Amino acid sequence: MKDLGEVDTILGIKVKRNSGGYALNQTHYIEKVVSKFCHLKIKDANTPFDSSIKLEKNDGRSVAQLEYASAIGSLMYAAQCTRADISFAVSKLSRFISNPSVEHWKAIGRVLGYLKNTKELSLQYSKFPIIIEGYSDASWISSVRDNLSTTGWVFTLGGGVVSWGSKKQTCISHSTMEAEFIALAATGKEVEWLKDLMMDIPFTANNVSTVSIHCDSQATLARAYSGVYNGKSRHISIRHEVKLKVFNEIQSMYDKHLKGLLLASAATVNGQAKEGCLDRCEAVIIPYPFGTDEHCYLSPYFWVTSNHSSNPPKLLLGKPSPEGNNVQVLDISLEGELLILNYVSHDCYDSLGEADSLYSYDSYLKPGQFNISSTKNKFTMVGCDTFAWFKGQRGHESYRTGCMSICDNITDVQNGSCSRNGCCQTSIPDGLSAIDLTLGSFNNYSEIWEFNPCGYAFIVEESNFNFSSNDLRDLKSKTELPMVFDWALDKETCQVDVNDQTNNACKGNSTCNKRITGWGYLCNCSEGYQGNPYLEPGCQGTRIYIYNCSIYFHELIS
Q1: Whole-angstrom distance, CA of residue 56 vs CA of residue 144
Q2: Could you give the CA distance from residue 236 to residue 238 in angstroms, rounded to a whole number?
Q3: Which of 140, 288, 322, 526 is 20 to 30 Å from the Cα of 195, by its Cα?
Q4: Strand partners, 150
Q5: What is the pLDDT of residues 103-116, one digit of tens each?
Q6: Which of 341, 335, 327 is nearest to 465 (CA)?
Q7: Which residues contact 517 (CB under 8 A, 6 or more apart)?
Q8: Which DSSP state fits 27?
Q9: CA distances (Å), origin 487, targets 287, 293, 300, 336, 344
Q10: CB-based burial label for 288 (10 Å; 0-12, 13-18, 19+)
Q11: DSSP secondary structure string, 143-190?
Q12: Do 417 and 424 meet the contact criterion of CB atoms below 8 Å apart?
C-alpha cells in the first residue's frame, strides 16, 4: 500500500481542507452530469422540486426509459454522497423509472437546473462538537395513487450532515400525526445504526453524548410519550414496532443494558410473560395473562398455542384443536384486544353459472370467551349480485343482520366506498361471541361474471379493509382477513379468587376498570407508569424530559 499524501478526490467527491475543518463537494461530478443531459435545455432553478406539480404514474407510452434510468442513477449518486437537498426530489422521481412521461422529464430537468445553480455547495465538517443530532419529518399522502406518505430524516455530526434519507412509507397513515410517527420510528432505527457505528470508532467511542431527535409535531410527541393505548393506531404497531432500549445520560451512555434510544411505537406495550414461559411467537409478543402452558396463563381462557408445524411458526388461539381450526393471533394488546385472522366466506360460479366448489365455502366462528369488537369491526359483503347475512350469539340470545348489493357494470362501483354498489357494511352489536355467515347470489353472477365471479362476506377490522373495484375478483384468493376480539378478566370483580381479597389480578401501580364494551374487567397501569399490570411486581415508572421537542428517556428504578 502506497501513501499518496492528503486526500484530494475520492470517488468523484472533492475533499478540501480549510480553517474550519473539511468541506466535501461534487462540483466536477455535477458539471459532468449537467453536460451529459444538456439536450434537456437545462435552466437554472432555485429549488430542486416544484411542490405545486402533482406527478402521477404514466399510463401512456414511455419516453426514453433507459435514458431516464441513467439520469436517476446519476442524480442518486449525488443525493447519497453530498447533496442531501435533492433526496426528496430524486426519491419521488425514481418511482416513475419504469415508464417515464414528458412531465417526469421536466422534473428531472429542474433537479439538474438546481444542481447547476448550486454546484459549489459543500458539506462542511469541524472536529467538534461530537454530537449526533437528528431531525424527523413527514409529508402526508405525497403519493396520489396509493395514498402513501413520505418519511424524511437528517442527522448532523461535527457541524455537518452525516446521514439523511427520504423514503415512501409502506403503510397508509390516516393522519399527519400517524405519518409523523412512522417517520419518527424510522428515524429511531437510523439512530441505533449511527450509535453502533460511533462505538466502533476508537476516537469517538467515549465522546458521544445523548442523541436528540427533533420533531415539529406536538401531536406525534404526545402520542410517543403516552402510555395509553389507542386501537386505531394498531396498524402502526404491526408495521413499525420500534422497541429500542432506554438510555441514561447521567450513567455511562454505552452500558450494555442501556444502549440505544427508546422510541416506543404507537401500540407497543411492555408486555412480559411469566418467568420461564414463552414470551413471543415470531413477531407476536405473548404477555401474561396469556400463555402457552398451564403455568404460564391466568386461566384456560388465555391459552394460546405456538404452532411450529407451519413456516414461519404461527400463534393460535386456544388449546390445539384436532380439526386444526384454531384462529391465528396477530397481536395481543394488554388494553383488552386481540387481533386475529378470521375466515372469509366465498360463493363462486363459473362462466356458465354453475357453482365453483373449489372456491365456495362458508365461514363460522364458534362461541368462545371473547367478544367480537363492536367498535373496531364491520360486517362486510362484497359483490354485484350478492346477498349475505349472519346469525350471531349474544349470551343466550340470537342476533341477525345482513345486506345486499346489485350492480350491472364495474363503472357503478366506487373505490373506497361501501355504499351498496359492489360493497356494503353494517355495524356489529355489542357482546357478540359467535357468528354463522350465509352468502348467496340472485343470478349466479351469470350477467357480470367477467368482472365479478364471486360474492364474499366477512367480519373485518374496519381500518384494515379499504374497498376497491379490484376486490370483486381479487378477493377470490383471500381466505382470511384481520378481525378484533375484545377480552377481559372472566370475573365479576378484579379478584382472581373472590374469597381471597388479597389475591388481586391487578398488581402494583395499576388500577382495575370495567370494560366500556362487552363484559369483565381490565387492569391498567396508573398514570406515569408502564408495563404489565397483571404480572408481579406490576407497572414500572419512566420519567420523560422534553427539550425543544427533543426526545430523552430515563428509566426509573422501581
Answers
A1: 7
A2: 6
A3: 140
A4: 139, 168
A5: 888 888 989 999 98
A6: 341
A7: 371, 373, 374, 375, 430, 431, 486
A8: H
A9: 13, 19, 13, 5, 22
A10: buried
A11: ETTTTEEEEEEEEEETTEEEEEEEEE-SS--SSHHHHHHHHHHHHHHH
A12: no
DSSP 287: -
Query: Cell 419521488 belongs to which residue?
Result: 92
CA dist 358 and 373 (Å) reads 31
SS3 assignment, position 238: helix
d(CA 447, CA 424): 20
Report the pLDDT value the prediction gives residue 370, as an integer from 0 to 100. Answer: 82
Pick from 348, 331, 467, 333: which is nearest to 410 by CA? Answer: 467
Q: What is the pLDDT of residue 5?
A: 75
Query: Strand pairing of 328-333 and 337-343?
Result: antiparallel
Question: Can you read off the three cell numbers belonging to residue 98?
Answer: 419504469
Q: Which stretches in the chain have pLDDT values below 50?
A: 229, 237-270, 497-501, 542-558
- Cell 486526500 locates to 7
Residue 12 DSSP SS3: coil
**CA 286/CA 196 separation, integer angstroms:** 29
Q: Is the dihedral of CA 229, 235, 238, 241 positive or negative?
A: negative
* Among the listed residues 373, 372, 364, the one whose alpha carbon sits nearest the alpha carbon of residue 457: 364
Between strands 133-143 and 212-215, the pairing is parallel
Render pLDDT for 431-451 as a digit per residue (tens, 0 to 9).
887 788 888 999 999 889 989
* Alpha helices for 26-64 (secondary structure H): 27-36
pLDDT tens for each residue of 510-533: 888 887 776 778 888 887 777 888
What's the pTM? 0.51
Q: Rounded to the nearest 5 degrees, what angle is found at the Cα of 13, between the Cα atoms of 12 and 15?
A: 140
